[in-house]
Amino acid sequence: MEHTFIYDGDCAFCSQSARFLERRVRTAAKVTPWQWADLESLGVTQEEAEAAVIWVEPGLKQAGPDAIAVLLRRAQWYWKPAGWALSLKPVSWLTWPLYRLISRNRHKLPGGTAACSLPQAERDRLAGA
């Protein structure tokens, strides 16, 4: 299994963020929307993928800001300090509430769309209508 970073490909804000990661934060990880990933082989449920970004590598699965921290630690040398800083307890206590705030409001952020605020089941229902 390779290193994989999973994000919400139906969310424009998330997709723009993933493109930034691919351009600026180079890792050996496959950065892919969860909608295109083989979640079962990665050991990730759809519910987990809908809830947060996820980092998967052999023996490790992290979500949300913890996933971002791992991605940064696996990137070029100059990103590693940011990844380690995000993992420090005082910082990590703040990152989850901040991550949830951004996640809940991603449809209001630059690049976000109304679809970003809907759960996947609702997006599927509207797409079929």
Automatic annotation (TrEMBL):
Protein name: DUF393 domain-containing protein
Organism listed in the record: Glycomyces niveus
Tree of life domain: Bacteria
